[in-house]
Fold this sequence. Notes:
Blueprint: H1 12-17, H2 53-66, E1 78-80, H3 89-136, H4 140-150, H5 161-164, H6 171-177, H7 185-192, H8 196-254, E2 255-257
Parallel strand pairs: 1-2
Amino acid sequence: xxxxxxxxxxxxxxxxxDPHRDMGKPLLGEAMVSAAGIDQKRTVNPVALxxxxxxxxxxxxxxxxxxxxxxxxxDEYIMIQPTAPPGNVPLMMQKEKLESHIKAGLASAAQAVxxxxxxxxxxxxxxxxxxxxxxxxxxxxxxxxxxVDRVDAHTGEGxxxxxxxxxxxxxxxxxxxxxxxxxxxETIMKELKVSLAEAVVLKTKxxxxxxxxxxxxxxxxDRYARIKNLLEARKxxxxxxxxxxxxxxxxxxxxxxxxxxxxxxxxxxxxAL
Length: 273
């Protein structure tokens, strides 16, 4: 048994011995290692049409298993030269085709991940709004503050309460202190001790707030439910792209040039593949 390049940390024999080692005791009877003689080594190097070598390999593997021998496969690859002869042209074309499939799959997976992150951001935003509504059921001041920041602030210069603070510095605080049942200017003037002009503005803003509160909460719940469904669908898409790419990547990795070949100590059971 040999290797190329640096010595590996573990040898193939280490993988064979592990099931039989017991707390550092010597191996007694369960495993045996002997230097294979020249008559105990076999190299199968068939010259056949493309695909027919697999028939020989499969016959040998299943025949050895039928004789109750354990089989471990150290590596599997298709060796090609950088300057491929005519017989390797179909194989090189297959490798290029696999590469294009992998690139397309990775691009689709990257887009799915980007969509997932955008949906995740929207999901957090709508969940935050729903939390505000839950808190607003006990304390309406929370919803009024949300209305000022997220809705009224975008009505434009001169129409939003933020822009009106130059004339009435306490208008935002007065609006947050208001109660929903204050529907007329006299009550607002009496409770908040404000002028008639400010009371008229507060009355209008209060009506807009109540209408927003009635319409916006059901819409937020529906949007949140749709975003959650889209989020789960995108998450499944990412997993499906990964599973879809696995066989292509595995086939691509098995077609190697001579300089890429590094014997592996990761043993696998060929009967399980």
